[in-house]
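Structure in, sequence out. Go:
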């Protein structure tokens, strides 16, 4: 078959070929746009409230609540955050951590949060698992309670802290970069 014969066959069936190509290309573009629209959406991280409790060691090996940070031997910081996923698919948040910032805006400590939902009594004290990731359901607002515990060995860090930055990394289809979620608490 020569080129002229192929062109004449194509001219005879140009309407059929155009309809088939239009249907195939239209279906593919519809699938791509639908997939893209399902993945479009943001995950927002907002601090709802926070509470700080200070404690001083008593004569019996326990802890008594006090009001002043300067006299504290221990401290517990509890945060309630709201997470909203506006996309139509599940999004995963990884590397959820906090940074303690001093008055010169230098990071003096970075750590992981304790997940309050995993709290359990063990050997006379509460133990918590660290929070490593969260799966955010589509179109859903989720509340998460997090905690930072300062013992007598690291209470000095809290005493020089001016703000706490809550930071997380959003995994998934965040082309071209991984998105960072961030919120700040000023003490």
């Amino acid at each position: 078959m020569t080129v002229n014969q192929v062109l004449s066959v194509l001219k005879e069936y140009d309407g059929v070929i155009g309809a088939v190509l239009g249907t195939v290309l239209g279906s593919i573009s519809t699938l791509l746009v639908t997939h893209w629209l399902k993945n479009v959406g943001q995950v927002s991280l907002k601090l709802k409230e926070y509470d700080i409790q200070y404690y001083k060691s008593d004569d019996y090996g326990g802890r008594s609540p006090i009001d002043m940070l300067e006299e504290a031997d221990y401290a517990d910081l509890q945060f309630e955050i709201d997470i909203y996923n506006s996309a139509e698919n599940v999004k995963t948040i990884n590397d959820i951590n906090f940074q303690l910032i001093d008055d010169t805006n230098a990071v003096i400590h970075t750590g992981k949060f304790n997940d309050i939902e995993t709290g359990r009594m063990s050997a006379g004290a509460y133990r918590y698992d660290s929070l490593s990731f969260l799966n955010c359901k589509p179109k859903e607002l989720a509340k998460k309670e997090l905690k930072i515990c300062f013992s007598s060995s690291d209470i000095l860090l809290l005493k020089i802290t001016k703000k706490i930055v809550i930071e997380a990394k959003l995994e998934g289809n965040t082309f071209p970069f991984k998105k960072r979620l961030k919120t700040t608490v000023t003490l």
